[in-house]
Amino acid sequence: MSNPDIRRWIILLAIGLCAYWMVQAWVGYQRAKNPEDYKGTPAPSVETNGGTEDTTVPNDLMNTEGGIQTTDEGDVPDASLVAPQRPTGSNTTTEINRDLIQVTTPLLQIWIDPLGGDLVGAKLPKYPVSLQDPDVPTTLLDRRFGRTYIAQSGLIESNDEQNRLPSRPVFTSVARSYELEEDAAEDTLDVVLNFEFDGIQVAKTFVFHKDRYDLQVRYDVQNSSTQPYKAGFYAHINRDEGPPDGVKTGFFRPPAYLGGAVTMPEKRYKRLKFKQLRENDFTIRRVQGGWIAFLQHYFISAWIPPQEGTYNYYAQQRSSGDFWYGFTSAEQTVAPGSGGQYQATFYVGPKRQKNLAPLADYLTLTVDYGFFWWLSVPMFAVMEWIQSWAVNWGVSIILLTIVIKTLLFPLSEMSYRSMARMRKLTPQIKRIQEKFGTDRQKMGQEMMALYRKEKANPLSGCFPMLLQMPVFFALYWVLIESVELRQAPLMLWIQDLGAMDPWFILPILNGASMFLMQRLNPPMADPMQQRVMMIMPIMFCVICIFMPAGLVLYWFTNNLYSMGHHYFALKKAGAT
Question: Residue 3: its pLDDT value, please?
């Protein structure tokens, strides 16, 4: 590539960077000028006894009609998932209490709808939407116009007669607001909802923990009637297919998986994609233990039933366009004068492996590392161990890169020795090119004869590098998928390793290191290939602009280590 071409590419890159900075500066100005425009819809006032109460319901969880958003299919799964017959009674609830129940813990803000006891709102105070808005927590569960993401649970009856209880009862509670403070003496908080009908008392209890994102959902049924009560338990996640609020992906950054997942006896982790469910419903019966979840990059919601029981799992698209991901339990019969209990665990929070591992087998696989997960898992374990004493995820990435490169030193050594031999042949290759430049067939024959004579193979340096590719892809997904790197600082201008470098310093340094590495490699025989190789550092520089800073930091560290190793190999072979 000629000097004018290089200057042209540099000027185009500079113009693009300046345009991007101008847009970012304008957005920052607008944010500072109108901060309320970036904090979501203000909470509505809810009618209470004798007046109004200023609540903090997130993003107008209630719809404009004043009731729960349902479909003509209802909110209860088909009872055939529990027992052979479908419920015959209608038993619909006509009166809906609009007052949501708010629960606050150090880790969660939860809103519960008395209708059915649904979890209709969840925010994560420890995970702000961005560093620019540290007081605006990430929203997971949400119910408003144009957004459906809620967790529902209840009891399914399959009696031959009309159902004993309404399918969607309206519960009562002693309070509309509960709080578990960080310095409270208790580690748990019980929120109890009650309902009674036809001699059957139902208590739906949510057990929250001070330092955990999982909560227990328990139904206690007391049968004071003269007839036995028979029902199964269901729980599902109701989600539309819209993207999460505030999620951005770059031009070259692959979008994270958005959809459901389940574990099965023959497959520990199976994705349940929107596209698949549009074509066919998913059902698997008589699974012992297990779980079903909904994933959105760094965060997850999941239903985990008691692992000793047997359950039917299902996923389907409803006529409303929303999707269900849930399970049903076997029926229990509660005799007159006795009680019964149904329960499950619901997790809503970040995909941190140490939080997920105790809940169920293989739930940690929802931290989706892709095809090379078997390499990614130990890599993350090592990186997490390094961070435990380095106290900086950026330093952990650098040290992990050095550890991996050191372990792969023999493969790299083979590759660099081959490149050193090729570099020593560079003068002879140039003479052949000058002599037979117009006769490409003759030039190829002479170069192959030279390679045979000197026992050199221009491709021998590629194979050791190809063997390292699985390691690269495994580490790539560790850096992309791990929530621990989200908003984790390195130093100075890098305050979020999960986001792109705001000043593009790391991408530029990475491109410069690639250019210097090319100078150590033997020149390509084809002039066109030489031009392509000259453009490569610029292309990677542009690509890295949109990549997470943690990944670019890995590439840059890898390049520095490789340059030192390559230079040492060339010097040892006398090719410098």
Answer: 47
Per-residue tokens: 25: 């500066």
DSSP symbols for 556-572: HHHHHHHHHHHHHHHHH
Beta-carbon contacts of 200 under 8 Å, excluding residues fewer than 6 positions away, are 164, 165, 221, 222, 223, 224, 225, 229
Q: 359-363, 449-453, 524-528, 538-542: lowest mean pLDDT where?
A: 524-528
Residue 554 has pLDDT above 50, yes or no: yes
Q: Which of 140, 110, 136, 133 is nearest to 125 (CA)?
A: 136
For 425-476, write each residue's pLDDT tens digit: 667 767 777 777 666 777 777 777 776 666 666 555 555 556 667 877 888 8
- Strands 177-179 and 101-104, bridge-based pairing: parallel
pLDDT at 102 over 70: yes
Count of beta carbons in the 10 Å neighbourhood of residue 484: 23
Is 90 exceeded by the pLDDT of residue 350? Answer: yes
Is residue 88 pLDDT above 60, yes or no? no
Is the torsion defined by CA of 401, 403, 407, 410 positive or negative? Answer: positive
CB 200 within 8 A of CB 231: no
Main-chain dihedrals φ then ψ at residue 12, nearest 5 degrees: -65, -40
Q: Which residues contact 213 (CB under 8 A, 6 or more apart)?
A: 107, 108, 347, 348, 349, 350, 355
Measure the CA–CA gap between 485 and 395, rounded to whole angstroms. Answer: 12
Work out the pLDDT band at 86, boundaries 50, 70, 90.
very low
- Calpha distance 154→342 (Å, rounded): 9
Q: In this structure, is the dihedral angle defined by the CA atoms of residues 177, 193, 171 and 65, taken in order, positive or negative?
A: positive
Structure tokens at 420: 């050193």
Q: How high is the mean pLDDT of the chain?
A: 76
Q: At what angle do helices 393-407 and 409-424 cross, to 10 degrees?
A: 70
Strands (E), 297-412: 299-304, 310-317, 323-329, 332-334, 339-350
CA distances (Å), origin 3, targets 6, 9, 531? 5, 10, 12
3 state SS of 220: strand
Strand pairing of 51-54 and 258-262?
unpaired
What average pLDDT score do residues 98-126 get?
Answer: 92
Phi and psi dihedrals of 4, rounded to 5? -60, -40
Kindly compute the dihedral angle of the four CA atoms of residues 132, 545, 297, 385, in this order, to the nearest 10 degrees.
-90
Q: Are 364 and 356 in contact (CB under 8 A)?
A: yes
161: pLDDT strictly greater than 60 = no
CB 46 within 8 A of CB 54: no
Pick from 184, 177, 176, 178: nearest CA to 210: 184
| Interval 410-428 mean pLDDT | 65
Highest-pLDDT range among 102-106, 264-268, 478-482, 515-519: 102-106
Q: Transcribe 138-205 into DSSP letters.
A: EE-SEEETTEEEEEEEEEE---SSS-SS-SS-B-B-S-SEEE--TT-S-SEEEEEEEEEETTEEEEEE
